[in-house]
Amino acid sequence: MSLMTLVLVTNGATTGKGTGSGISNGGAPGSVKGSNGSDPSSNRRALRFSPGQRVSGRPLLANPQVLSAYKASMNLSINWLVNEQNSKGYWPNKGGRVGDTGLAILCLLSYGVLPQDKTPAGQALATGLDWLTSKVNTQGDMRDSGRMYSQAIGTWALGEAYNLSQQAQYKKPLEDAAEFLIKSQHSKYGGWRYTQPPFKTATDPGDTSVGGWAMPAVVSARLAGVQIPQKTIAGANDYLDVVSGGKNKGLYGYSNKRKPTPSCTAIGMFCQQLIGNPNKARQDESAKLLLANPPSATLNTHAMGCGMYHYYFYGTLAMFHHGGTPWQDWEGKLISPLMKAQNVDGSWDPVASKKPATKSKVIATAWATMCLSVYNQVLPVFNVGKGGKSSGTQGQGSSVK
C-alpha cells in the first residue's frame, strides 16, 4: 500500500468497524485536550518523539499526512480508553481488572499523560492509579483472577507512574508489589509462572508469557529507584538462556520443553534488551524470525500466540529498539494494517485463533495503542540503555514536567 493510500484510509475514506480511524479534531468527550486547548502531554511527546533508528530513507512518519493520521489514531485510542474507565477507577473486565487497568495506565503514560494533569486523561490516570494502589495488600500482592499476569502488569504500571510523576503516594505500593514479584521468581531457573513457586514440577522453569510481563516490571521498578537484587536480574537472564535455541540462542519458546515461536521470540528479544547485554548475532537471529512473520492483515495463527496485537506489541517494542533495516521493514508492514483495523470509536477488537487467550477489547486496544506510542519514547523502560535522566537510568527517576 502506498503512503497516499494509507493516508486516504486513515483519514476516513471508509467508515465502519475496522475500516480506519478517521481524523479527530480533539473535541470528543474524554479528549486529551483541556477546555482551553492546552495539553501538557503534547509537549512531553514532542520532546521524546523519535521515528526510530533507520539505515536509510525517509521515516514513515516524516510524511506530514501520515503523521497527521497517526496522531489522530492515537488521540482516538486514548479517548476511547478514557471513556471506557469505570467510575471507581478501574477498566472493566469480567476477569482480571488489575491487568486491564495496568495496561490502560501504561497507554496513558506512554502518551505523555501524568496524573497531575488537569485534563480528562490526566484525571482518568489519577483515579486509575488510586484504584490500582488500593489493590496492593500488606504483602505486596495485587493479584486478582489474572494471577501473576496482574501482579506483573500492575507493578510495571506503578513503576512507570512513580518514575515519571515522582508522586510519593505511588512509591510504597510499588516497592511492595515489586518485592512480591521478586519473591515469586523461581529461585533456581529464574522464571515466573501463573502462581508463586513451587511450580507444577521440580524442573519447571516458568513460562515466557508471564515472564514477558514480569521482566519489564522488574526493570521498571529498578529504574524508578527500587532496589532489585542482582540475583533477580541474573535469574531472568538464566531463564532466557534455558528457553532459547537457534545457532545464536536468539529463538525463544514458551518453556524449556517447547519449540521456538515468533510470539515467544518477540517477547524474549525485548526482554533480552531490557535485562541482558544482548549481542548482535543473537538479536539478529530474533529479528530474522520476526521478519519472516511480519504484521499482516491476514491472520497468522502460527505467530500470534495470545493474540495478534499481543504479537505486534512485543514485536514492535523489540524491533524499534533493534533499529536499522529490520525496524524499517517491520514498521512498513505494521502501520497500515494496524490503523486500518482500528474501529471508528478508537478501539481495536481482539483477534486471535479459535480459542483466544483474551476477549477483552481493553487489552486488545492497549496492545495496539502501545505499538503506536513506541514513537513517543516517554516510558522510561522504552529508553533503557540510552542514558540521561529522562530515560530513568540508575534509579534517578525521570520526572517529566
Can you tell me about this structure?
The chain is mainly α. The protein has a single domain, classed as Glycosyltransferase (Alpha/alpha barrel). The chain is 51% helix and 1% strand. It contains 15 helices and 2 strands. Strands 1-2 form a two-stranded antiparallel sheet. Strand 1 and strand 2 form a beta hairpin. Helix 8 packs parallel to helix 10, helix 9 packs antiparallel against helix 10 and helix 10 runs antiparallel to helix 11. The chain is globular. It starts with a helix and ends in a 28-residue tail after the last helix.
Order of helices and strands: HHHHHHHHHEEHHHHHH
Return the domain count: 1
Distance between the termini: 39 Å
Question: Might you state the CATH topology name?
Answer: Glycosyltransferase
Low-confidence segments: 1-36, 387-401
Q: What overall form do the CA principal axes indicate?
A: globular
CA radius of gyration is 19 Å
Largest sheet: spatial strand order: 1-2
Total number of helical segments?
A: 15
Indicate the CATH architecture.
Answer: Alpha/alpha barrel
The average pLDDT value, as a whole number, equals 85
